[in-house]
Structures are given as structure tokens and as C-alpha cells.
Write a structure and sequence with these properties.
The structure is a homotetramer.
Chain A lengths: L8 E5 L3 E5 L4 E4 L2 E4 L11 E3 L5 E5 L3 H7 L10 H11 L6 E5 L5 H10 L4 E5 L3 H14 L5 E4 L12 E6 L8 H7 E11 L2 H13 L2 E16 L4 E3 L2 E3 L4 E7 L1
Parallel strand pairs in A: 7-8, 7-10, 8-9, 10-11
Antiparallel strand pairs in A: 1-2, 1-6, 3-4, 5-6, 11-15, 12-13, 12-15
Chain lengths: 252, 252, 252, 252
């Protein structure tokens, strides 16, 4: 088990959960004050008590802890289930070079950056300066900035990158970028478009049809959680019914 | 664009799709014979004609091409949507050390191996020798064997590995392994159990409750594909309704 | 178009919706007072203004207006989608004789009573006196009491009715009533069991297997609503994920 | 229990299921010949043996037996789950006067006719003569023709009926009929449109917005069946993912 360093982020799991920088030294919560500096040199997995006597487990955070508990959300994010499908259906893994537009809150950006390390890269474009600045902060905060090249730039002029493994579009007017995406992809690479509305899917699919793409597929992912007790099991009463449609197409 | 080497596997996309070893030299299909040796030194993305004049695009295959077109399926596999969720919800990425039981056809095994490279490892256990042998072949064939440690061994005696990031169980009697999985996990690590039947979910959840786990969640993933034409859009007529339930739990 | 009588119930549709008895004479709302007595002799479909000048359409209510806007809900009801499937899958229609246990809030009871009129009957049993009294009020209020025989009685002793077209069970311990239901059904009649939990489904199915039933089917009904605007269409963000499982079986 | 008459239809349940006219006298099956005439005067529920010794239960068929086992299907039908929702959400019951276009195979027509008896009526329009003739046969065969007024007529010229409780449209170009449907409905009555494609839903909803309708709702119904055994329970592997969207709107 690794030891905690002053430069680490730690996940505190207790009555509430927190993801904090050890370098902060002291952390104030409703459940009392936690002396983070005392953690340095201890092993991940250790327990720490707050000034009010509440106990917290100290864990090394993973990407999802960051995405759920720390990332600041400005525009609507691509939810974790959809991020998972985008990665899983394209084979996204270490070494991949991915172009993304727009960056938004950088939720999908950092999710993908975590997968392409140590030798891939996410090139992400965001037109709006306020979103870009917020995204930049999130990317820096994620500790994954080394694998992200974030640009405050209009991609209607095209991408600078070539031979991308994947181009992901999550933006209004994605259909106007399909042709540019085709050019930026390497052969066998994937175009992925995330669309909240079916009309966007149609516009995009019509453009995809005009380019040299294969294996075009539009899908949606529904995740249904269950309540399981010793005596009874049933699906939860409500569920997320819709986030967005995901269209995949492969360049040949 | 990279050049094709004699040691490469290539994906041939045409009227039918094939994933073949260039070293094979010549490949016979219904659509004519393809001279693979002539591809060496050419760039991925090139077109090749069969003896019958059929054209094929020659692409570098990714993990999903392997999983769909090449992996020999003996026992029921964990489907790609479920693999995606398992990876996405646990943060599975390069460097992760994962324990898996049972190996089955090694579909999930190779899916995960592709994600943990270049410095992680999948330790996978399979009791049945026939499955183990088939899985071993698939793993070797995937080109990912360097990141897999496959064992023909009964895990009811426990795992040899410690401090795993994830333990994935896809086996009958998974509930008997929950306690051993807890021991093998590092703090903050994930237990993931894939269960076709709700009764298995219950048995597993009852055991999870007896160990020190947090964030227990049982979910199922439904993927709904769409038919999009220039004029009309609608979901496909039929869909996969069920593969298995996935239970996640985090060790503290 | 029919004229409104003093003995009618009317549906008032405006900024808020109400289902009221004309005999009440005057009705007080947040949107002003409505003089119901002035409606007598006018045609359904007329508009009426409140003392605050708010306009309301005056309609003849149907069964669903009653179920949604007027029925007092004590215990959990069987939702409209599930009522619809129960009726649709059994052929429930005028003349049917249906046995139901338990009555609960009488939501399903009145839904079914509306379908069996003018010459069928719902025989409904409720053990708990508080539920029975509330249900009785709802049944009377529905105007359908003529087609309902409600009893505050324990059905563990069996039903008094014979040759029923349908027996519907929505109660804890339904599995103990399966054999009695079989006896009370005419040949070709349907047993329908509504179960929130899968464990109840199993207990019931195990008992069904021991009796002479055919066409056993357990199903669940998911209803997904859409948001359609001039420009965009998409499913609503959230949906009801679960109410209950419905098991059908046919006596031979 | 009622006795079987020469004019009855009977449901034969055995290795295969049949719905036949007793008047036919003799019925030939793969499982041997069945002497139907011998059934007259016996009670429904009786067993009969074929010439090959196979046993069949003899039941009185209900509407669903007719719809599933006997109705000849020419054009695509509205499936039973959707029929159920249409009836359940509009309060369709005895005495209702319903206008339908087009008739198609008369599946929904006879489903509704069974619900409006003894004193309601279905007025159903079909433009195509081949469909009309087939539908007419099905309606006659159902024994419900008394409650159906079927017309081989183009409804683009409007309906002759007024004050309908429900107008149901299942036809290409339904959006062009919305205004006519509004006129034909009584106040408080329901327009129901069944649309396989989302583009049709949009066209219809745009027209609905221009008329005086309330409570506009577009929904789809997914039915998921389960496999329940003594030991294990799980949803079936595949399911129907899509039939059509149903739009409801209420005239004021």
C-alpha cells in the first residue's frame, strides 16, 4: 500500500465524502475539522478522526471520484454511462489520440484523458471562453493536464490534428463538422457524436452518409438500478430516461 | 499512417469483414482469394482486390474488431455494453491490477487487458481446463498476453494476488468468493460481480453486507439502437432485453 | 351534447383542474369562486368564469379524471399503465365477473368496474377495516358502486364467488391464495397477480405451477413519455422505472 | 358453466391451440381429427380427444384468443400492449362512440368493439379496398360486427360522425386529419394518434398545437417479459423494442 504524500489528493469517506488536496493542511467540514497534514507518510486506507470525533477512511481517489465529487459542472455533462459506452465501443485506451469538440465542463475530456495515458492525448476545442476557462481549471485539477491539449478555438475552421483515432462531437451544429472530422480521422478511426435530440441525430446521419464511413450506429444507453435487501429485490422506483443519443461511424 | 508489417493482423472490410494474420500469406474467402503478403510495406487504409475483383479496405484492427470477429466463444461472454460499464464505473485504466474469475472465453479479460496496458495486469482464474485452454488461445491471439496472467486454478482456495484495484467475478457461486475478494482488494478498490439471475445478485449482496464495503450498487445496462434514414427515425424493432446484472462495491 | 344535471359531477379545466359535484352549489378555489348551480341545464363543453374572472371549461369527467383527480389514495395504487395491461391482456369488458383482493384504495377496483358495466361485477375483498372504509368511500364517489361488491373480509378463508372470469390479487401473501383462485375461476379464466417484488413473483409462480394453469406469463410495463416541440423531440429526462410485475395465468 | 351451442366458437387448447366454429362439424389437425359436433350440449371446460388420442381443453374464447389465433393480419397491427394503453388512458368502455382511421386488419377495431358493447359503436374508415375487405371479414368473424360500422371511404373529406368520445388515427398523413378529428370530437373527448416514426409524431403535435387541445402527451409502451423458474428469475433475453409512439390530446 502506498504512502500519502503532501502533493496527493485524498478521498475522505465518512458521513459525507470529500476529495481534497493534502497540501491544504486543514479541511473544515460540518462534521468537524480534519488535519490533512497529519496524513503525510501514512498509508492509503488509514482512518482519521475529525475534531468532532467523526471517522473518515482516507483513500486514493480514482477518476470517477474526481468526476463526481470535484469537477465543477458548467454546461451539461456527458454522463458516466455514456462516457463508458463511447470508450468501450471505440476501443479507447492508452496511446489513443482523440479530438473532442466542445470541451464543455471537461467531464468527458478528463474521463478520456485517464484512458489514453501514458502515451495518448486528448485535443479538445471549446469556442466559449467562459466554458474554456472552467474546463481548463477542471483539467488542471484532475491531475491529467499532461494528456490534454485544450484550446479556446472555433472548430468550424477545422482541426489542426491529423490521423486521430477518434473524433468526438458534443456540440450544437455537429453536422457541420462531420466532413472535417472525416479528414482528421485515420482510416479505421471512429467518429462519435453525442446528441440530446433526435433531430440532431438525423442531421448528423445525413452528413455521415455523404462521407466514406462504415458501421454507422446510433444507440442510447439506459441504466436501471436495483434495490436489493435481504428479503426483497426490485428496480428503483425512478430512473434516468434520457441523456443523449450516441452515433458511431467508422472511417474507411 | 503506419506501414503494414508481416507480423501484423489486418482487418479486411468489404462485402464481408475478416480479421487475419498477414503472415498467413494467402486468405481464401467466398469473395475470392486475397494475397496478404502483397500488403507488407503498404500503409494501413490501403485497398486490396480479391481474385474475384472484390475490393477490401485494409485497416489496423482494434480491440473490438478482435472481440467481435475473431475471439472464439465457448461459454457465454460478458457483452460489450457490460464490459464498458464495468470499466467506466471503476475507472479501469492503464496500470490497474485486476483479478478476474472465471476467465470463460476471455472476452472481458482481453477487453480489460487492452485498458490496463502498458503497465497493469489482469490475473484471471478458470477452473475448467477446456475453458482455460480456449481462453488461453484467445488471449494469445489478441496480442495482449503480456498483460494477462491466466491460471487454470480453483479460486475457492483464494487468490494469490494482493492490493488489486478491481476483483471481477463472473462465475457460479460468486457469493462464496466475496470475502476472499475483499481481502485481495486494496482499500478503495472495487468488487464487481456479473450475475445473469437476480437470485445470484441477492446472494452476493448479502455477503457484501457482511464485509466492509461502501457504495454498493446493482445495475443493468440496456442499449437501444435506432434506425435513422433521411426521412424517418425509430428504434429498431427488437433489442437485447437482458444479459446480466452488475453489482459494484467498494472496499474501505 | 348532453345537458348538465344537478346530480352530475363536472370536470373544471382551467389554470387548475377540479372534479366537483354540481350539487355542491358553490365551489371555492385559489382562482376565485365558481357558481356550480348556474351550470344546471347548460351543455357539457360550456365555459364558466370564476369570481376572479378565470375561465374554466366544464366537461363530463371520465373514469380517469376520477382516478387521477378525485380518488383518495391510502395504500399504494396499481398505476394506470398496469391497470390498462391487466384489462387488455385478459379481455376484461362488459359482463365480466371479477374477484379482487385486496381492494386497497379501490383504484383498480373502480377502473375495472367502469369496464364491466352494465352487466358485470367486481367482487372485492379487503381485510383491513381502515382501507375498506376508505375504499368504500372512493367506490361510492366514483358512481360505480352498482358494479362493485366490496367486502371487509379475510380471503384466506376463500372466496364465495364461483365461475369468475378473472381473479386479481394485489396483496402480501398472494401465493397462499393461488389455489383458492383456481377454484373460483371458470375454465379459461385468468389469474392475475400484481407483485412489487420479484420474490413475490417467484412464490406465486411456484404455486401456479402446482395447479392446472396454462399460458403463464410474467411481465412488466414501462411507459416512456416524450417532449415534442416544433424544433426538437426527445424522451423526458426521468421516468418511472418500476411499479410492479404482473403475472398472468389461465385456468384449464 | 354454460353449455356449448352449434353457433359457438370454441378454443381448443392442447399441443397446439385452435379457435374454431363448432358448426364446422369436423376439424382436421396435425394431432388428429376432432369431432366438433360432439361438443354441442357439453359444458365449456370439457376435454375432447382427437382421433390420434391427443387431449384438448375446450374453452369459450375471449377477444384476445380471437386477436391472436384467428384474426387475419394484412397490414401491420397495433399490438395488444398499445391497444391496452389506448383504451386505458382514454377510459374507453361500454357506450363509447369511437371513430377510427384506418381500419387496417381491424385488430384495434375489434379490440375496441369488445369494450364498447353493448351500447357503443366503432366507426372505422379504410381507404384501400383490399384492406377494407380483409378487415370486414375479420370483423364479421369476431362476432362483434354489431358494434362496428366499417366504411371503405377516404376520410380526407372528413368524418360523418359527431360528438365522438375518441378519434383514433393509425394512418400515413394523420397530421392532415387532426383538425377534422377536433371537429368530430365532443368536448372532453380524446384524439389518439399511433405513429411508428418520430417524424410523424412531430407533424401531428404541430397540428395539435394549432387546435384547442389540452393534456397533450406522447408516450411509448415497453413490455418486458420474465423467465421465472423454481431456482432462477431473469428477464427474457430479447424483447420488442419498438412498435409505435402514441399521442393523446383532449379536446376542450
Amino acid at each position: 500500500m502506498e504512502k500519502i504524500k503532501i502533493t496527493d489528493k485524498v478521498l475522505l469517506l465518512g458521513k459525507s465524502d470529500f476529495l481534497v488536496d493534502v497540501a491544504k493542511g486543514v479541511f473544515h467540514t460540518n462534521h468537524g475539522t480534519i488535519k490533512l497534514s497529519s496524513l503525510v507518510g501514512k498509508k492509503f486506507g488509514v482512518n482519521i478522526k475529525s475534531s468532532k470525533g467523526e471517522s473518515f477512511s482516507v483513500l486514493r481517489p480514482n477518476i470517477n471520484d474526481f468526476l463526481e465529487k470535484r469537477l465543477a459542472r458548467l454546461p451539461q455533462i456527458v454522463s458516466l454511462k455514456d462516457c463508458s459506452l463511447i470508450a468501450g465501443y471505440t476501443g479507447l485506451s492508452s496511446g489513443y489520440r482523440v479530438i473532442e469538440a466542445g470541451t464543455g465542463s471537461a467531464f468527458l475530456t478528463t474521463f478520456m484523458a485517464n484512458l489514453v495515458k501514458p502515451d495518448g492525448k486528448i485535443f479538445t476545442y471549446e469556442l466559449r471562453t467562459d466554458f474554456f476557462n472552467a474546463a481548463k481549471k477542471n483539467i488542471d485539477d484532475s491531475g491529467l493536464s499532461q494528456w490534454v491539449d485544450a484550446k479556446n478555438r472555433d472548430i468550424s475552421k477545422g482541426f489542426r490534428e491529423k490521423d486521430a483515432d477518434i473524433v468526438v462531437l458534443d456540440m450544437i451544429g455537429a453536422e457541420k463538422i462531420v466532413s472535417k472530422a472525416h479528414k482528421a480521422l485515420k482510416s479505421g478511426g471512429f467518429l462519435v457524436v453525442y446528441s440530446p435530440y433526435i433531430e440532431q441525430v438525423k442531421s448528423v446521419c445525413n452528413k455521415i452518409e455523404m462521407e466514406n464511413f462504415l458501421d454507422v450506429r446510433t444507440t442510447e444507453c439506459l441504466v436501471r438500478d436495483y434495490k436489493i435487501t435481504r428479503d426483497f429485490s426490485r428496480p428503483n422506483t425512478t430512473m434516468l430516461s434520457h441523456t443523449g443519443y450516441i452515433t458511431f461511424a467508422r472511417k474507411i
